[in-house]
Amino acid sequence: MKIRIIIVFTASFIFFGGGCLEKKYPYQDPSLDFEVRANDLVSRMTLEEKVGQMVYNAPAIKRLGIPEYNWWNECLHGVARAGKATVFPQSIGLAAMFDTAQMFRIAGIIADEARAKYNEFQQKGKRGIYQGLTFWSPNINIFRDPRWGRGQETYGEDPYLTGQMGVAFIKGLQGDDKRYLKLVATAKHYVVHSGPEPIRHEFNAVISERDFRDTYFPAFRASVTEGNVYSVMCAYNRYMGKPCCGSDQILNGILRNELGFNGYVVSDCWAVMDFYQEHRVVKTQEEAAALAVRSGTDLNCGVSFPSLTDAVKKGLITEEEITTAVQRLMLARMKLGMFDPPDRVPFNRIPYEVVNSKKHQNIALESTLKTIVLLKNENKTLPLSKNLNSIAVIGPNANDVEVLLGNYNGTPYSPVTPLQGIIDKVGKKMKVFYAPGCDWAENMPVVETVPSHVLYLNPACDTSGLKAEFFSNLDMSGQPLVTAVYDTIDLNWWEAPPYNGLPDDSFSVRWTGYFVPPVSGMYFLGGEARDFRLFLGDSLIAYYHSEHHAMKRYGQMELTEGNAYPIRLEFSDIHGDASCRLLWSPPGRKLEQEALQAVNQADAVIMFMGLSPRLEGEEMRVDAEGFRGGDRINLDLPKVQEQLLKKVHDTGKPVILVLLNGSPLSINWAEENIPAILEAWYPGQAAGTAIAEVLFGDYNPAGRLPVTFYKSVRQLPPFENYDMKGRTYRYMTGEPLYPFGHGLSYTTFAYSNLRLERDTIRSGEQVRVFVDITNTGEMRGDEVAQLYIRDPVSTVTRPTRELQGFRRVNIEPGQTVTVEFLIQPKNLEYYSVKEKKYIIEPGEFIIMVGRSSALDDLIYRPLVVIE
After folding, report:
1. DSSP sequence for 501-512
2. Catalytic, out of 120, 157, 158, 268
3. Which of 414, 452, 681, 852 is the residue whose CA sits 20 to 30 A from 234?
4. Would you tell me how many other CB atoms lie within 10 Å of the CB of residue 715?
5. 362 and 106 in contact (C-beta within 8 Å)?
6. CB proximity list for 211: less than 8 A, separation 6 or greater
7. Is 616 a catalytic residue?
8. In this structure, are residues 403 and 613 in contact, taking their beta carbons and an 8 Å threshold?
9. pLDDT digits (tens, 9 = 90+) for 91-123
10. Out of 74, 616, 636, 783, which one is annotated catalytic?
């Protein structure tokens, strides 16, 4: 049993900032208001000390009892980069739940684990990156174009759904204590930001005021006015000619003055540097830093704000303006309880044992089940019978852990791949054959750990393995603390460093030796770690640095059999998950042949295809057809995957397709030819268990698409065009492959008796809407009722329909339930550019309720609004 003893000094000394400081000043008195204390504290800082607190890795001010603090932390769908944690589905999957109550529960779990980790770090005196309480989540940008690689981080294409899911997440993270914040949530990236990734540092988003107000802005508006979010991150790009982190209009004018935001603004990482290097709106770093702070940016993720001291001397900004920003930052730390005695802060009592507790594991599984969308189920192909004799599990996504996680992810304790989930479900009753079948895409191979028989200590190749040198620093300087020999590199050091004497979150290691190809041909060599560099000879062939999003996971090269190539792998554990793998894809593999052999032995085939975080994400180097810089050029399933899908289909065996991906796919051939299709997103730690329960009928799927699945990229305007015309279900005129809100069930539901509390209301009044839903099938299941509103006689062009309500309800076979919605004035309004405010035009509105946004799935009722 671990016993923790906390001593609180209450006489002439007080616990403050991680130590004991003589009690002299108002800022040390926990009985005073936080605002009074923060202002008093800042008043005692020098200019240089204030500027030091405005960078994400703020130094200590020992004379004032302020410890160092790193503001950078991530928890998009689980606590990330801070050791193992409960990992939920990627955000786009969480949006598919259409369930704000579940989202609130998920965020509460994340907050508990974050506080537990913080408490543990504090006990060990750790205050580095990814060890604080200020989290840069959620991403509430609108997924306006399915080509955007970071769309997976969002809650989809709809402003209302994004706002509601975002508010639930924010409230769950920040908690409901009357005095203290549990965590600080950060709504990002403010405000008009959704790719393209390769030009995000220089791009200027030009849109109409209507599109800004009615599409890109509402989720941020809701996060402030409904969610009380305490932090906002401004984006890299320009909006209407001004950098988002240097726009007085959107930060001070709209965010603070119009919405009443009273928290702090943090720049995206190194975004202020873009002011003079990419956007060219100023010439110097001092001008950039001054512009950012004057415009309302308080905290710099980057290296520009230290120049504020010189900026003051040059008259570019006043010390008073800097003081205001630092007061906001100190107030946030006060509200988190960082300067109060531990026993005053209720969250300090959350023990580390909550991390990945059984309760959290159960909620993770429940959440994954709720995210899965049944896209197609012809002739009731699903659920599969458990009486089959054998089954083939095929595809590059069938047994890969990384594809479960998406990006900005935590590290799960015991992730379950789809293959493992199926084996656990039916492996004792039927044979399960497995083969990856193909690569993810051209130049993006299925990889495995480099085996020991091709690694040697010397060019004579008489001793296997690689020499490992471990250093007690991050840059491999000085003499190594430990030297050892490793046969292979597939290593995880989660809870402790590999050797005594090494710091457990800031050590480095260098492996050196020789790589000897067993055959001549084209090789892929690379790694998986949060910070690594791989050299072959003198050439850097692969690297990854998560802090700056620089990555090239694999190098491709022609190598000769028997040659001894010098190889060097360098790894740094930067305050996070210590894991490292040396991976390869050798020539001469027979993936397709192995897959077809497995298929021929099976009664049915489940194919796990789609995308991968290796292909889509943030500012990536991807050399594959259909992908560019983390974004996508087309929406098709990669050619190598579709070719395999067709060949397996041609065998005549029953085929089920399961997609794992973070963005929509144009699977037109599959829609026409494959009888059953599931969308599973990047499904988190419980992926395999949840997918197996759906496939074999132990759970009835009810997830809904938070994005439109287009038939082709040709249905979209140019990626760089931010106008909403022709985009998303709200403005699209063509027919989608699968509409927004789509999702099937193993049972059937009938909607009837749509009625309004009143058919006519005055502008500014609210009205209740009721609809009856009957489960007309034979299986209990959830139904997601969706309410859309259309203004057909507006004087301006409004969306064809807009989601303004949703309810997820569980209904027994034969049961009828009445679902209620509340239409408030904000659900009917739009932004009048002429009047510069939100208005409701009198006239007839169409109220539509049903199972998706497709017009055939909706029943209608008019609502008249009068003056």
Report:
1. TS-TTS-EEEEE
2. 268
3. 681
4. 18
5. no
6. 722, 723, 724
7. yes
8. yes
9. 999 999 999 999 999 999 999 999 999 999 999
10. 616
